[in-house]
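Question:
Write out your own:
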Amino acid sequence: MIISRKLLAALLLAAAHAHAAPPPVAAFFNNSAFNGAMLSPDGRYLAAFIGGSDKRDGLAVVELETLKATMVAQFSDTDIGQAQWVNNERLMFSTMDKAKGRRDQRYAPGLYVVDRDGKHYRQLALRRDEFLRSSDDNRELLPWHTYMLDQPGAQDSDYVYVTDAGFSGGGALESEDLLRLNTRNGSSSPVDHPGTARSWLLDQNGEPRLLQTLDKNVASLRYLDPATRQWRTLLTYDGYTGEGGDFHPLAFGPDGALYVVSSEGRDKSALFRYDLKNNKLAPRHLVELDGFDFRGELIISKQRLLGVRIHADAEGTAWFDPGMKALQAQIDARLPGLINLITPPVRPETAWVLVESYSDRQPRRFLIYNTESKRLSEVGRMAPQIQAADMGPRELVYYKARDGRQIPAWLTLPPAGAQKNLPMVVLVHGGPWVRGGSWHWDAEAEFLASRGYAVLEPEFRGSTGYGQDHFHAGWKQWGLAMQDDIADGTRWAVAQGYADGKRVCIAGASYGGYATLMGLIKDPDLYRCGVEWVGVTDINLMYDGGWFYSSDLSSGWKQYGMPHLIGDPVKDAAQLQATSPLAQAARLKQPLLMAYGGADVRVPINHGLKFRDAVVKAGNQNVEWVEYNEEGHGWSLPHNRIDFWGRVERFLDKNIGKP
């Protein structure tokens, strides 16, 4: 047989990949030295989050014309967390201590401002629990529970809006009032409003225009009419289940039009304009996504709506502006095979735009592009040790559940070598009422794939983003149809030849941890082992974990949300007992890796302790227990992430990694 040079080269490349050592665990789970960037409103400057192995994350500003960089803010004892441009000259930021776990962390990030040249630094709000006074005028700082609003506002003055959050004793958010803050002198004034505020939306001028309030389980969307200066109610609905909520607001356009996301009269939501005068949706949608609920944001520049950032299977952009369509084509030609997201400045005075570029194999990179000189320069990248050639392909697949429902799932395969009859990890997302995955580089899935595993991530019923019917079908289905969807996906992957049916492990965190335990108990023929971290082990423990193990789930959620979505502890007592892993711990016989955070207030460690003791007492001695004393609901510290996933690698290799 004669082999062509091209085929021989391909075979040699595949062999090299097959024998090359995969990237180390730290390459996937260490903190990145670069953590994103954002253009100033005029596009002349770029602010970037930059740190390093020996330094805390700071905030740097680059003058794009000269590429001169200035570190404008950096602390010795904490990291810069979030930041926004206040205007072209000034930045506001908060902190986040990446060296501390949940036990030692205080939800008091502080609030600071500084000019883009590093001058006129000022602290505006307390950080941690210290009582501080400003050094220049002895004014009291704003309280520790003052936070940046997740909307930049007008960005044309020294004023911003910030939130004054109210928390319950358990740490659940109860209210979110609004303050108008002068970033130069620190003075502030509250925004008057009716009801108990839970969220806000600023209009095209950066002023508060929409307010969501919550009274018991009744949520109301209120509009501040600029003509009358009075609040009026646009919509009321169930604040926990969403029933009766025909739409939710997205943003105001540059002309003052309100854009909303609605599923009224349809299964999957779409983007509409909303008629504020007559309180009704426009008759036709503006943007819809094939197979997905609408998810995205408006892209506005020069007081024009240029397009809409969308998120279907992957992120993308629906451009309305012909010039931006042409620019997208230019950049896509320069960066082929990648998702390239273009963000223009709000009020551009230069030719620079920001580009975020990624794929399923390449972590996100940030670049700047000059539309006049055609200069494309990389600013920084996430997970810089990862090379695309060492990563595996990821795709959205569909399979049928036993009742005929079509279930989406994400399938990630190893980067080279065999693509069939693989050991497989069924990775179950948490929530559970969230969208689990997307077409992008995913650290957990790619780590497992780099070790030779196929990874299946089912978007079981109850997951959001795939229509109202798919979401509602998961109500009160913990351990029932939701669990069956996961099992049916596993059998599908085996039938398709992706997985070796004798080498499958189920894994997940939070709700995914619950589904892991129920999968091992309910479908012992499918799963040879399980890995669960911070997982719910008994639904009744979510209602009442005991005074010492109280969680941060709000009393309103327990009273109005959980009984409808999960199950009523009285009316559905028999079902909750039948779907409790803790009550059936004696049935679990497979090897199990469990990990919990000692400071978790979402799923307190009592869940894990009770289940571990019960399964060991029943005779299963093959249980590995890990406790990260300082961690909460997940691993915030890189050394714990690296340690945990190293344990996962060894556990899987021992139980399903060998034929």
User: Anything to note?
Assistant: Residues 1-17, 129-138 have pLDDT under 50 and may be disordered. The radius of gyration is 26 Å. Residues 638-655 form the longest helix (18 residues).
